[in-house]
Amino acid sequence: MARGNIGRVRATRSAGMLPVVLALTSAALLTGAAVYTVDRAGCVDPGQYIRHDNHIELVGGCVDGSELPVAPQGTSHEADSKLDGVQPSNYRP
After folding, report:
1. What DSSP string describes 29-82?
2. Closest CA to 80 of 50, 51, 54
3. pTM above the 0.85 mark?
4. 44: left (phi over 0), alpha (psi -120 to 50) or beta
5. Can you tell me the distance from the alpha carbon of 74 to that of 71, in angstroms, rounded to the nearest whole number?
6. Pseudo-torsion of CA 52, 50, 59, 83, nearest 10°?
7. Tell me, what's the pLDDT at 29?
8. What is the sign, positive or negative, of the torsion defined by CA atoms of 8, 12, 17, 22?
């Protein structure tokens, strides 16, 4: 009986490199898609967060107030006034 690799499959270096090449190619394509998306967004002013006495406000940015949906009827700022000075448990300044 002969000894050897009868019935066994030998892995080659090129077969081992295929997953690496595919992973790097997909990473490069996803990076290119992200850069293209950000470039086409057209947002010159990204905005900034400003901390006031008891809240944080986003000033500037690409979203105009007229683009936001209208708040449902029945909501008011009276409910918010009851919570003045109360910080959420996960608030980290």
Report:
1. HHHHHHHHHHHHH--S---EEEE-SS-EEEESSS--GGGSPPPPTT--SHHHHT
2. 54
3. no
4. alpha
5. 9
6. -40
7. 97
8. negative
